[in-house]
Structures are given as C-alpha cells and as structure tokens.
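Extended Data, panel c. Modelled sequence:
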Amino acid sequence: MAFPLAETIFRQRKGSVAKVDSQTLLTELRGALPTSEILTDPKSLEDYGKDMGEYEGFPLVVVRPSSEAEVMKTLEIANRNRAPILARGAGSSLTGAAVLEGGMILDMRSMDKVIKVDPVNWYVQVQPGISLWDLNAELKQHGFFFPPDPASSYICTVGGAIAEGSGGLRCVRYGTMKDWVLSVRLVLPSGKVVRLGEPLPKNRAGYDLLHLIVGSEGTLGVITEAYLKIIPIPTVPMRRFLATFGSWGPIGLAITKMRTSGMLPGLFEFLDRDHIHALNEKMDRHLDEAEATLIVDMEEPNLDKMIELLQSCGALTIHVAKDEAEAEDLYEVRANALLAVKSMAPAAIVGDVTVPLDKLGDYFDSVKEVAEEHRLRIFVMGHAGDGNVHPTILYDDSKIEEKESMGSAFDEICRRAVAMGGTVTGEHGVGVQKMKVFREQLQLRDGGEALDLMKRIKEVFDPNGIMNPGKYVAEE
C-alpha cells in the first residue's frame, strides 16, 4: 500500500516540484549532529518504511535526536534545503501518516524522560518519546494515571498520540487526547520554538493554538515536550466482565438504557462473531462465538445494576472476572483482536468511523450490506460507549480486483457513516487513507471553507511545505 512519492521529490503548496540535493542535506546534518544519530543504511531505513496500517514509504535518512536543540538544528537544515520531514514515534498509525517516501524521519523515541510529576496541580511534564504504557508505570508510583489508552498504548508515544489526537478504550469515560493536553513545546519548521498553552486548569489567553497541534498529524511542527493532565488512581474498584448477545439490536438498546440511567462505564467495547472466531483460531482462545460480545468495566457499586440492565436487553451470558489477572486477560481479548483478524488474510485495512449512538445497530447492518455487495469479509469492533466503530476489510492484495473492491468498500463504509450523521474518523485520523472521504464530509456539511482555512493555517506554520507533505489537507 505504498504512498507514491518520488524518492527525493515532493509537491509544494504552489504546485511546483522541488528536488532535494541529498548530498548537501546529509553533509549539513553530519556537520550539525552526532553521526550515531544519523541513519542512512538500507536496513535501518527499511525499519521505518511501514506503519501499523501497512502503508509504505522508504525514507532518505533517519535522524534520532536526543534533545530539543538537535530537533531545532534538524528542522532548520530541512527547511533551508526544502527537504520533507516527519516526526515519528512508534509508527503505530493506521492511516499512512507515519511514513514518508524519500524524506527525513525524525525518530523521537530517544527523548523519553518524565521531567516532573506535579501532585498538587495534577500534571506531568514529559518528553514526547515515552510510551503511554511507561508513562503510566511512572505515574502509578505517585498515585496518578493518564487516562487516554489507545489499543497500542504499550508502544505508542506521547508525541505520536498528541499528533494523532488518539482515543482508546477508556474514551467513554475520559475522552480523547485533546481533553488531556495542557501545553506543548513545538519546534516550527523554521527551527524556532514556541510554547502553546499553559499547565493550568484555566487559560483563556489568545487563540487556542494548542488544539491546532493536537491531531495535526505532523503537518505543523515537532512536539518536544508536553504538559498533560493527570488524575489520582480511582479508589472505587472497577469490575470487568464479558457479555454475549445473539444479535446487534440489544447493544443499541443497552446503550440507550445505560445512558438514560446515568451509569458511566470505564470500558464498553464490542466485537462481532468474526473477531471472536479469529481470536479462538489464531490465539488459542476458547470464547463463545456469539453474534455480539461486549467487554465492560463498571464501578463495583453499580455492577449488579449494569448486569441486570444487560440481562433485560437479552444478554445470553455474562462472565465477571474473578480477579485482576482474569480482568487483564479479558482486556487482552480486545487488545489482540485486530492482530488476530489481520492474520486471517494476506492484507487488511482498518476503518475508523463514528456514528450517533442511537444509529450503531443500523450501521452494523449497513456494513454487512457493503460486505455482501463487494463480496468481501468486513469485521466490526470498536468502542460502543462513544459510537466509534472499526470495520476491518480483509482482502488479497495480490489480486487487482480485490484491491479495487477493497478501496470502493472502504469509501462506502465511510460515506454511510457520514450519511447517518457521523464522521469518517473518530481517533485514527486522516493521513492519506481518508483524504477523499474527509473532503466529501466537509462539503456535505457546508465545510468547504473550513478546508480552505486548514490549508491556510498549514501555510502559516509551514510556508515551505516540508512537514509531512502529501497528507491530511494536501491536494489530492
């Protein structure tokens, strides 16, 4: 699924084409940075050539900075040479946002320090290269945690999660990254540094430039430091359980009843029969292959009430984890679902739409219609509590007709979500994967001017068009 940019060529904002003098670029980099931080050998470059969505892009050079000063130097050199550049964490993006053909990759993972944990003002000051998993391990020692938890939390980095505006399994209770970022230090393409936002509960000074960066997909600058909100580890214990249903209709009914009753789960995840079958077959699980499966976290005082609610909606079985180890095992069911499904076919593409909660059941039926029309297998899972659905299309990428059907089916499942009042992305972002349907959504919602504003914002931050070019708001 390569993104077709010529090796050292990229398209600038005015439509002209700039060639990078790779020899001059490498000479300047080697004169400014330790040689151990500059990688040009084919094996190293190949390691950065894919993201988790199997999008491909072979870089010209990889730089591994260890300080903000080195990021500044690298960007100043890139900008002067008009060289395309992309800051990358773990490469867990699923949309092609974390690969760059023929450009420079900034691997930010060496900048992985927790600078300060403030137990009074409830924030953590942190570098961008630390994983969310390691961040929470450190915060746990202070009695705090950072709630956003993408399924890739064990590897995805703070900087990548901010740039992608990531979500995760706990979104139903805690929201996404945009709700937890207080401030960032950002190196602009010019090499200059700006701090956006403040580590304060309230701050109304100036335009909200901070939240332009959250979800900007590496197109505006490079995050070198972040202040994130944290909260104390909850003292009321959560209980995790798995519930199965014979059809999808009861899931929508359960969500309606749950929300009108005022109950707020910590997790409310769903998987279809195909995901459970894949887990059983590929990961030696022994789960009931019901039409629909929920994995739920509920505060212990409301556990019985939630179980009664699901039973009233037609739950076939409900199994409550007996201890923390079993609860973690149930979490792994959801966390490993995508890996299991991807192993069922030569290739897979993962969608990420959000629909109104009262339309979830209708959307599931609609996805199955698309699968039948295009003669493809499309599995669905996601976050039932906030309407975020991840349809995964399986196909054989060696067969041209299947690749074409996959592309048409992917666009159609996005369009059907938009038609129901939804959006083409809830947490994965646009990258190169959804540029076309993203534009269609804006046009349908009278957002043509919004896209123009986004392009002009991009030009203000990045007048030479070097930051992750060809993505997000780029011309098709």
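The CA atoms of residues 20 and 83 lie 6 Å apart. This feature is highlighted in the accompanying rendering.
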